[in-house]
Write a structure and sequence with these properties.
This protein is mainly β. Helices cover 5% and strands 58% of the residues. The chain has two domains: 86 residues, Immunoglobulin-like, CATH 2.60.40.10; 522 residues, TonB-dependent receptor, beta-barrel domain (Maltoporin, Chain A, Beta Barrel), CATH 2.40.170.20. It is globular.
């Protein structure tokens, strides 16, 4: 018996000696912890384990059998969004190993949105641009539209000044062809547009802008782009309080505060922001209040839970159409206004087990309320004589999106990964419009239009990624069951090939191409119809709008990959686009799939890491668009000729360019953003004959200086050239404006 116990003790001792725990800490170039990085443990090229760093930057691999090692060391590969991929050899035993990440060239930067998992941009086969936390902190954008406009391929059209309806056009697509995600929550109106002008970026850690059809991974609305915003997490063991305020011309006042930290298994970031301005001219005031939290808890070395909540409440004055390309034909509307109240929340459970697997379970809800109203006919209203220019109206929309999705990532090798998932979503919308009209005798009355819709949607998706040698392939398909249009399969395949490795001067030549499908579900009004004064019939047989998208290009890197030049051709074929058919004699009509259009062109980018702290991203875009089929747009239907077949698509310029130059050090930072938008077709929709908006150039400047470790001074100038222009016909943009202030930092590390 004693011999047995002794043998057992010796066996356990040997096993304990051969089993070991590895603890990895991942930090950024300033030695701050990096949370959410994907850490892969390899031995002789074989993937053993995968882990995700905690808020304090730690990843632990327990119970490793070091006796199986022949080299006496492991290899660690780290993929952290916003940094370069890092690979290091580490000993099998020893103290905590710290891996410091490096800032990457744009093509090597690790991104998430392109494949739903961390991957260097050059291997995704997609066009993607990012704004990192340092750039956002220097730009100090009031809302998302002020940041996105300086990214390659982004065309922003804002109806007026701050808070005006702000739309995004990408690669000739419609403003409803963008999927927008904030903290894992889809926030686009189902089948409709998204307003980028009222989305504060306070508390944001990074923004990713993915161009091209991406419905395989993201479903409806991802016809030409995906925009994803990530909130900052707490990472300092000593809680950190940041607060500050700034002010500027046009009675602008702005204040903000954030409290963050990470202790043990818990991390947190609470943030708030308040912005107010009177704007330039009559009824251009804007106010927005934001509150948010991003908090996480590590349940075990293999599981973590993250909860994120954001609430924003805005009020915007709307002067309406009055100044047409410099011609003030009307007085501004003194009382029209818009209000929005948006609340989103998500809970994400991440489990890294069994070996080679990572699972994400996410539940979310988005509640959106918008009110547009005009109560005073200060610019003229005579319904008896059919003058509805400035009559009473009140439009209220209430949309709720709630859903659940599961994503599983299986990574048997560092060069192979399978991603699969399931998504369920409940879309609920109510629309209530009241307006002044006439009865059958010509007497003024208040008309009412109502819409209510409910959709329960399901989707399955799978994606396979392979990277071997010079070749990288990403392919996938999504199967969609939508309550409105039924079943669809949406494919995507992208191929990237390293044609030449190159040397110091010419550091690599890559060729890439892809084909992808895109779909967009109908809006609630299009599917469920409108009841009330001017009804439309519901059309449950509507098909989704579709995009057949092809792109191909080349990327050439220079000087040890510090600089890169890329040129890409894209071709989008839009099918089953929805138009309105009026049926006489009652003129009660319905929405039908009858229109087709196309857009093709070229994107040229030059990017560089001039120095470790100085980066450049510049682009030129050529886009040619045409309406191919619009059978319902005829003079008999009072259709604007600009919407007829053969015409170019509205608000899509043929020529555009962007520039973003950023320098960020430990003591100071500065940025220059430039945007050139060429002449583009547009309409006043009032019969005044304005059919375009002239081109313009906009330049923004920003900078900050750390007075000491606790106080930083900063200033920002927007439209620094003081250009007077319209982004939308009839709505003059904000002239030169500036803000300056101080921010304070207490605690932290």
């Amino acid at each position: 018996m004693r011999a047995l116990c002794a043998s057992l003790f010796i066996f356990v001792s040997i096993a304990a000696a051969s089993a070991a725990d590895l603890k990895i800490r991942v930090v950024d170039p300033q030695s701050a912890a990096v949370a959410g990085a994907q850490v892969m443990l390899l031995s002789e090229g074989l993937l053993l384990r995968t882990a995700t760093t905690s808020a304090e930057g730690f990843a632990t691999f327990g119970g490793l059998n070091t006796g199986d090692l022949t080299s006496g060391s492991y290899q660690i590969q780290v993929l952290a969004p916003g940094f370069a991929q890092q690979t290091s050899d580490i000993p099998a035993r020893g103290e905590i190993t710290t891996i410091q990440l490096h800032v990457a060239a744009a093509s090597e930067t690790v991104v998430v949105t392109a494949t739903r998992t961390p991957l260097p941009a050059e291997e995704t086969g997609a066009s993607i641009s990012t704004l990192e936390s340092g750039q956002l902190e220097t730009m100090q954008p009031v809302a998302a539209n002020d940041a996105i406009r300086f990214l390659p391929g982004a065309i922003i059209s804002t109806a007026g000044q701050r808070g005006g309806l702000s739309s995004l056009f990408v690669r000739g697509g419609d403003s409803a062809y963008n999927r927008v995600i904030v903290d894992s929550v889809p926030v686009t109106e189902p089948g409709g547009v998204f307003d980028f002008g009222v989305v504060p970026l306070a508390g944001a850690d990074r923004l990713e802008f993915l161009r091209g059809a991406q419905s395989t991974l993201y479903g409806s609305d991802a016809m030409t782009s995906v925009v994803q915003l990530f909130s900052r997490t707490g990472s300092t063991s000593t809680p950190e309080l940041r607060f500050g305020a700034d002010g500027g011309n046009f009675n602008t006042a702005h204040g903000f505060a954030a409290l963050s930290g990470a202790r043990g298994i818990w991390d947190f970031n609470f943030f708030a922001d308040q912005f107010n301005t009177q704007g330039s001219g009559i009824n251009n005031s804007y106010s927005n209040s934001l509150q948010g939290v991003n908090t996480g808890i590590r349940l075990s070395p293999l599981a973590s839970l993250r909860i994120r909540v954001r609430h924003a409440n805005s009020r915007t004055g709307i002067p309406g159409e009055w100044n047409f390309n410099g011609q003030p034909l009307f007085a501004p509307d003194i009382d029209q206004r818009a209000r929005q109240n948006n609340l989103l929340a998500s809970a994400e459970l991440t489990v890294t087990a069994p070996s080679h697997w990572q699972h994400r379970f996410t539940g979310y809800e988005y509640n959106h309320r918008r009110l547009n109203e005009d109560t005073v006919p200060d610019r003229g209203c005579d319904v008896v004589n059919f003058d509805f220019f400035d009559c009473f109206f009140s439009d209220l929309e209430h949309i709720n999106r709630a859903g659940f999705n599961y994503q599983g990532d299986y990574t048997p090798r560092s060069w192979a990964q399978t991603t699969l998932g399931y998504e369920f979503e409940d879309e609920n919308g109510n629309f209530d419009s009241q307006f002044l009209t006439t009865d059958i005798n010509g007497n003024p009355i208040v008309g009412i239009s109502l819409t209510h819709g409910l959709r329960l949607n399901h989707a399955l998706f799978v994606q396979q990624r392979l990277t071997r040698g010079r070749l990288s392939v990403v392919g996938g398909v999504r199967y969609v069951h939508n309550a409105s249009f039924g079943d669809r399969a949406v494919p995507r395949v992208a191929v990237t090939f390293l044609a030449l490795h190159g040397g110091e001067w010419f550091s690599g030549t890559r060729l890439r191409s892809s084909y992808a499908g895109g779909i967009k579900e109908p809006t609630f009004e299009e599917t469920f119809g409108i009841t009330g004064t001017f009804p439309t019939n519901p059309n449950p047989g509507l098909k989704p709008e579709e995009n057949h998208a092809f792109e191909a290009g080349i990327e050439q890197e220079f000087l040890g990959k510090r600089y890169s030049f890329s040129a890409l051709y894209f071709n989008n074929q839009f099918h089953n686009q929805i138009g309105f058919e009026s049926i006489p004699p009652t003129f009660v009509g319905e929405f039908v799939n009858v229109n087709r259009s196309m857009a093709h062109g070229a994107e040229i980018e030059f990017r560089g890491r001039i120095k470790n702290r100085l980066s450049l991203d510049s682009s030129y875009n050529y886009t040619s668009t045409q309406i191919l089929l619009a059978p319902l747009c005829t003079p008999a239907n009072f259709c604007d000729p600009l919407l007829a077949a053969g015409s170019p698509l509205l608000r899509r310029p043929k020529h555009s360019a962007s520039l973003l130059l950023s320098y960020i050090s430990t003591r100071w930072g500065v940025n220059l953003g430039g945007s050139f938008i060429g002449r583009r077709p547009d309409s006043d929709f009032l019969g005044l004959g304005f059919n375009h908006t002239p081109g313009y150039v906009r330049a923004d400047l920003g900078g900050w200086y750390a007075i000491n470790s606790h106080v930083t001074a900063y200033a920002n100038v927007e439209n620094a050239l003081d250009r007077r222009y319209n982004e939308v016909v009839g709505y003059p943009a904000l002239p030169i404006n500036f803000r300056a202030g101080l921010r304070f930092r207490l605690g932290g590390e």
